[in-house]
Structures are given as C-alpha cells and as structure tokens.
Amino acid sequence: MADKNRNAKTRTGDLSRHDWLVAAVAALAEGGVEAVKVERLAKTLGVSKGSFYWHFKDHAQLLAAILDFWAADFTQQLIDNAAGLPTPKGRLRHLARQALTKTIFGIDSARAEAAMQAWAATDPHVGMRLCAVDAARVGYLEKELLENGLEPGKAQAGAKTLYLALLGLYTARGYNQHLADDQVYMALVDMILE
pTM for this one? Predict the structure, then answer.
C-alpha cells in the first residue's frame, strides 16, 4: 500500500496545471460541461483528487481556467504561430491549416469547439467569454484580409465567412466526413484572398 501511495504522490507532483486543463477540455469535448468533474479527471489522470488542489482552489476555478485556456491556447497561440510569416496570405493560409488540425493536445478540435458552444448556450457568462473569443478570431481574420488589400466591408464579410465556414466544417466532422472537406475550406480561403 505504501508503494501505491508513493507512486500516486510522485505522479501527482509530475502533473501541471496544463495537464489538468487538457484533461478538463477533453472531458468537456466528450461529455459536455457536466463531464468536467474533479474526481473523474483525477481518475483519468491516474492521481488522487488532492493533486487537483495544488493547481485549483475549486471546481469553479477550474471552469474559469478552461475559458482562459481556450482563449490562450486554442485561439491566441494559433494566431501567434502565424504571426511570424511575412505576408497576410501566408499568415491566413498557415492559420487555416492549423485550424483544420483534427486534434490539439490530443483533443478532437471539432468536438471541443462544439462542446464550448453548447456550454456557452446554457451559461450567459460562458457565452460572453466565447463571444470575446469569436470576436478575437474574426478580428484577426479581418485584419489580415485588410492587410491583403480588401476593402473594409469585404474584409469583414470575408472574415465572418471563413470563420462560420470553419465552424460548419467542424460540425460536419461529427456526422458527415464526406461533407467535411478540408481541401474545400482551403479553396475558400484562397478565393477570399484573391
């Protein structure tokens, strides 16, 4: 028994806040916000619940941290990864390819996006936070389209078209792989960039 506790303690020390957040988003993607339970996450990670409290005060703090993680790692990080490229076309194509990645941190990106939207539809605070993420994503697309030479109205329409098409593609991945065609999405990116 002592060895089992020592191994759990060692494993607990190895886990980071990031590990807990990845597990929480994976649970969210699989079963919605109701699936994000401390005990379930601890079991998934192979640790005691005590490990959780090294990183989070309580369940509410974990849920708030998921929203921050979503904004930072599922949005801003993708934008930052494209920022070093020299042209708006290159940045947008790179961003589109990243957005089409089927998994992020081993999590199905389409399911995670759908779960975030479902959570936002039932919780006004989450809805406001997700609206801010949507605005950041669309704003970045619009900025790059403006820099590529589109007029403001067309840049805004193009940005919304790209974003909404991506969300639709994510939805189709859940039930119609034939419709969820990444090449068609990349062709749309190229059409809007022309």
Answer: 0.88
Residue of 135, 139, 70 lying closest to 105 (CA atoms): 70
What distance in Å separates the CA atoms of residue 60 and residue 132, rounded to the nearest whole number? 20
Q: How far apart are CA 100 and CA 82, in angstroms?
A: 14
In the numeric block, the tokens 């959570």 are attached to 119
- Output the CA–CA distances (angstroms, integers) from residue 80 to 70, 97, 135, 137, 150, in the order listed: 14, 14, 16, 12, 22
**Could you give the angle at the alpha carbon of 179 between the alpha carbons of 96 and 156, nearest 5°?**
40
pLDDT digits (tens, 9 = 90+) for 104-121: 999 999 999 999 999 999
Distance CA 118, CA 30 (A): 12
Q: What is the pLDDT of residues 158-174, one digit of tens each?
A: 999 999 999 999 999 99
Task: For each of the domains in the chain, give its residue range(s) and CATH number, in order of start.
Answer: 59-193 (1.10.357.10)
Helix (H) or strand (E) holding 43: helix 38-45
Among 11-15, 27-31, 49-53, 185-189, the minimum mean pLDDT is found in 11-15
Q: Which residues is 107 bridged to in the sheet? A: 104
